[in-house]
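Page 37, continued from 36.
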C-alpha cells in the first residue's frame, strides 16, 4: 500500500471538492473573466495595471493549494476562451497553477498578515512572472522579445506591488469572513 505524506500539513478538506467549493470556484472564474477586461494598457505591449490575479489568490486563500492548482488550470483556459489574445500556450496555465499553489501554501489556514501576503506575492512575481513567464515568452517570441517583456513586467510589478499586497490582504479577509459564516444549505 502506497502511503502519501502530507508535506504541507494540509487538512483533509483541502483535498476534497464538494458542490459548494466547485460552484464558488466557477463563480470566481467568471469574476476573473470580467476582471480581464479591466486591464489598463499604456501601449499594446505594456500593461500598466491588472487585478486578474485576485480571484486566483482568493480561491487559494479559502480552499488551499490543491484547489488553487485546479482553479489555475481551468481559469487560464476559460479566460483565454472568453478573451483570446494570440495563440493559446499551455505554459501560462502552468504559471497560473504555480502562482495559486504558492498563494495556497503561504495563505491557506494561516493568519492573513501584510508580511505573509507580501512574501507570497513576491515569490509569485519572481518565480512565475519573472521566471516561468519569461521562459514562455522566449519560447514563443524569441530571446529579444522575451527580455523586453520581462523588463516591462518587472517595472509594472514593482509599481503595482504595494497595491497587490493590500488588495489580496483586504479582499482575502472579507472572503474568509464570508466563507466562514454559517451556511444554511
Amino acid at each position: 500500500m502506497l502511503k502519501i505524506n502530507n508535506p504541507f500539513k494540509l487538512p483533509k478538506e483541502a483535498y476534497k471538492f464538494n458542490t459548494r467549493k466547485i460552484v464558488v470556484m466557477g463563480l470566481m472564474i467568471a469574476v476573473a473573466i470580467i476582471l480581464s477586461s479591466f486591464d489598463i494598457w499604456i501601449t499594446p505591449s505594456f500593461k500598466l495595471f491588472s487585478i486578474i490575479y485576485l480571484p486566483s489568490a482568493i480561491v487559494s486563500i479559502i480552499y488551499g493549494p490543491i484547489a488553487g492548482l485546479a482553479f489555475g488550470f481551468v481559469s487560464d483556459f476559460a479566460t483565454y476562451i472568453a478573451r483570446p489574445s494570440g495563440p493559446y500556450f499551455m505554459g501560462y496555465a502552468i504559471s497560473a497553477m504555480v502562482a495559486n499553489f504558492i498563494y495556497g501554501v503561504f495563505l491557506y489556514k494561516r493568519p492573513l498578515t501584510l508580511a505573509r501576503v507580501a512574501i507570497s506575492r513576491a515569490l509569485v512575481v519572481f518565480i512565475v512572472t519573472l521566471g516561468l513567464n519569461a521562459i514562455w515568452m522566449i519560447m514563443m517570441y524569441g530571446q529579444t522579445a522575451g527580455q523586453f517583456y520581462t523588463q516591462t513586467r518587472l517595472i509594472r510589478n514593482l509599481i503595482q506591488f504595494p497595491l497587490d499586497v493590500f488588495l489580496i490582504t483586504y479582499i482575502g479577509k472579507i472572503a474568509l469572513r464570508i466563507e466562514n459564516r454559517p451556511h444554511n444549505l
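The radius of gyration is 17 Å. Flag for discussion at group meeting. The chain has one domain: 18-40+53-179.
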